[in-house]
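Pipeline run #58 for the internal structure catalog. This entry was flagged by the ingest filter as a single-chain record with no existing model, so it goes straight to prediction. Upstream metadata was stripped on purpose; only the residue string is passed forward. Reviewer on rotation: M.T. Logging verbosity set to normal.
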Amino acid sequence: MGEINWKDKCWVTTIFLVNPNKQVLLSWNNNLQEWIPIGGHIEFGENPIQAIKREVKEETGLTEFEFIPNQKEYPETIFSGARVQFDKVKHHNQHINIVFYGKCSGKIENMASDENEKLKWFSLEELNTRKSEFLRSVY
């Protein structure tokens, strides 16, 4: 069995969460100095779905959200609705990023990031007017 090259490549997962007001939740990343979706590194023994559920809880305190489309947690599941992208980042060289989409129900307040990074709900108008604050892959 081959080994994963962790020296210059990291497996990560992110999710674009949308609320009932059609706003997307983003986190200010201190390393990149840009707004990015919620997410992080996939830990040893986790599959991408388990990792994103953990990251959402750690970064926002949210425990309830739905995948779009609905994603089951079976090992044989094909990641429907997800995409894989390769991101060049300063501090790890390359992230292999499994990207999901999800929605939250109801009003969500008092969210707090585990790393004390800012969290913000962005409307489509804000995304368009603040385009320069986002990675191209995020915008």
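catalog note: The domain at 9-130 is CATH 3.90.79.10 (Nucleoside Triphosphate Pyrophosphohydrolase).
catalog note: The mean pLDDT is 79.
status: ready for reviewer M.T.
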